[in-house]
Every structure is written in structure tokens, then in C-alpha cells.
Design goal:
Radius of gyration: 25 Å
Distance between the termini: 18 Å
Helix content: 25-40%
Shape: globular
Largest sheet: 5 strands, mixed
Structural class: alpha+beta
Order of helices and strands: HHEHHEEHEEEEEEEHEEEHH
Mean pLDDT: 76
């Protein structure tokens, strides 16, 4: 939720040239045209007073409808960066809507070269986690700094963010049991291919990773089938940090808590770059520093790695793989 993208990418439309297609200056309209238009409007109002009174009302209604549509679709500018947590559908699903991870995908994600990571760096198209300024580190029962991810299978922004989370955390440990899934086919950025953390295991000598996938990608009425429920402690962390000033959309996902020292809400880049691509196609581009996919996923992973190191002091495997730092994050009083 709600890390917004760095900008709408929409340029200012230049004013229309006063010249016609032949290059000559346009001639001003005769005054009689303006006079005729004015008298026509006046005559219409006099002859049809009821219709004339309704015109402003219709215009206002159309403007309101347009604003509602723009709000619902994210408008033509920067898209929303997060999904609101739904109220929950039917009880826990018998199936999570996942499938086997395609061969070679995880290997591609975890073997991006040091040269590519350094070349990508922290591009402006990605968004850095926000410092909470908290003094106390969130730790797991084993005493290791804890990374907490809360998302849902239907959420396209969660789908995008998981790619970077898997890549980033793989520099500190090893995932096993990851499966494949996709975002809802009826949401924005439909059918975005991604990993599922449901049922997976993460092993690291220095960090602990916990994930909660709230719902599946399978519709259930106006919502989706429930999958996992946060513990009381996880719900408390989510409630504390998934609100202003860390996001303008309280209660949004994906939610990433890095030891309570850094918070990332929403996807760090737009899921648009993954549209129409299979997991194999996405993974195959990660080592290409010029690829839009690599710039998005590798760049966000670099930011997450930098935040983990700043929060915990733990260096990733092959610490020279990236020169990124956490200085780009903004401290927020907790």
C-alpha cells in the first residue's frame, strides 16, 4: 500500500499553435459569429426555461461521475501503489490458488550479478522504505531481527513487491518451498505473475522472515477466500505502522516491516512493467541492466537490502554486490 510511484510521467500539453496548417496566422472570427451565438443562447433560455435550468445540473452530475471513475481506476496519472485489505471472504481455502514454481525461476532471481546490481542501483522509479526512528528492534522468538511481510494473493501490488523481497532476502539466506501464483484477474494489473510465500520456508543465520498471506486470488462474493490470519503480535505491528505518516492509505498491502526500523507499504514500483509476462520471462530479464523489469525489481531489491543493513547491521552475502545505502530513506518519528 502505499508507496506511490515517483510521478505520473504525464508531460504538460503545449498550447495550441495560433497558426493554421498552411503556416499563416489564423484569422480572427467575425464579430457577427459571437453576436449570433449569444443571441441564440438567449433565445434558447427564453423559449426553453426548464431545459436551460437543467443544463448546469447535468454538467455537475457528469463531473462527479467522471471524478468517481478516475478515483476508482487510478486516473490517467500515477497509479495507486497499494491494495486495501478486503474484509475477508469465506473461511480458509482448501487450496491457495498456487502452483509449482517454474523451473529455473528462483535460480535466475537469486543469481543476478554484482555488476548488474551495481549498474541498476536505486533508480528514481522505485521507492525507498521509510525509517520509523524506532529505538527497539523487532525480533523473532529466536532473537534474530524479524522481517514481516503481510500481503494477499489477489493483490497486484503484492505480486510486484514479492519479486524484490525474494531477491533481497536471498542475499541474506535461502528460500525453499516457494510456489507460483498470480494476482486477481479482475483487479488492476490483472493476472500479474509472482511468487507465493504461503507454505514456504526461509533459512538464514542472521535474519528471520515471516509472511502472512491474508487471502487467495479466488473470488468469494465481493471479496476473496481467506487464507492466513495474523497473530496478535503481527496484527499489532500492522495496526501501529500501516497508517500515517507511513502511508496515505491506512490498512493497505503489501506491508513490509524491517525489524520495526523501516516500513515499506505498497509496491516500490508499478506492476505495469510485469504485465503480460510469464514468471520465466520476468526472471530471465533480471540480469539485464537495461531491462525495465530489472530496473524495477533489482532497484527495489537494492533499496530493501540497504534498509535491512541499516536496520540490523547485517551485511548481505557478497556485500560488494551493491553500493546502495539507506541514506535515501526518510526518518519518521514513531
Amino acid at each position: 500500500m502505499a508507496k506511490a510511484s515517483s510521478g505520473s510521467g504525464r508531460g504538460t500539453r503545449p498550447g495550441r499553435d495560433s497558426r493554421n496548417s498552411s503556416g499563416a496566422s489564423a484569422r480572427p472570427a467575425p464579430k457577427s459569429q459571437s453576436t449570433q451565438s449569444t443571441s441564440g443562447i438567449t433565445r434558447f433560455r427564453r423559449e426553453h426555461p426548464t431545459l436551460a435550468a437543467l443544463v448546469p445540473v447535468v454538467v455537475v452530475v457528469l463531473v462527479i461521475v467522471t471524478l468517481v471513475v478516475v478515483k476508482a481506476t487510478g486516473g490517467s496519472g500515477a497509479p495507486p501503489a497499494a491494495s486495501k485489505v478486503t474484509s475477508g471472504g469465506s473461511p480458509a481455502a482448501s487450496t491457495a490458488g498456487t502452483s509449482a514454481l517454474p523451473a529455473g525461476v528462483l535460480a535466475d532471481v537469486t543469481s543476478v550479478s554484482a555488476a548488474t546490481l551495481a549498474a541498476v542501483g536505486e533508480p528514481s522509479a522505485t521507492v525507498a522504505p521509510t525509517s520509523t526512528g524506532a529505538k527497539t528492534t523487532l525480533t523473532a522468538s529466536n532473537g534474530k531481527p524479524e522481517i514481516l511481510f503481510i500481503g494477499a494473493e489477489y493483490c497486484p501490488f503484492c505480486a510486484a513487491q514479492r519479486w524484490s523481497v525474494v531477491e533481497a532476502l536471498s542475499r541474506f539466506g535461502t528460500f525453499s518451498g516457494l510456489s507460483a501464483t498470480h494476482s486477481s484477474t479482475s483487479d488492476v494489473y490483472p493476472d500479474t505473475k509472482t511468487f507465493s510465500f504461503y507454505g514456504a520456508t526461509y533459512t538464514s543465520t542472521s535474519l528471520d522472515f515471516t509472511s502472512v498471506e491474508l487471502e487467495t486470488n479466488q473470488a468469494s462474493g465481493d471479496s476473496y477466500t481467506s487464507l492466513q490470519t495474523p497473530t496478535a503480535a503481527q496484527a499489532a505491528v500492522f495496526s501501529k505502522y500501516d497508517k500515517a505518516p507511513y502511508t496515505t492509505q491506512p490498512g493497505s498491502i503489501p506491508f513490509l516491516d524491517i525489524a520495526n526500523k523501516y516500513i515499506s507499504i505498497g509496491s516500490g514500483y508499478t506492476p505495469q512493467v510485469l504485465q503480460g509476462l510469464s514468471m520465466q520471462q520476468i526472471a530471465a530479464q533480471l540480469n539485464n541492466k537495461s531491462s525495465a523489469v530489472a530496473i524495477a525489481i533489482d532497484g527495489e531489491a537494492n533499496r530493501i537490502v540497504a534498509a535491512i543493513t541499516a536496520a540490523t547491521g547485517v551485511q548481505p552475502d557478497g556485500a560488494t554486490a551493491t553500493s546502495t545505502t539507506a541514506t535515501s530513506t526518510t526518518a519518521v518519528s514513531s
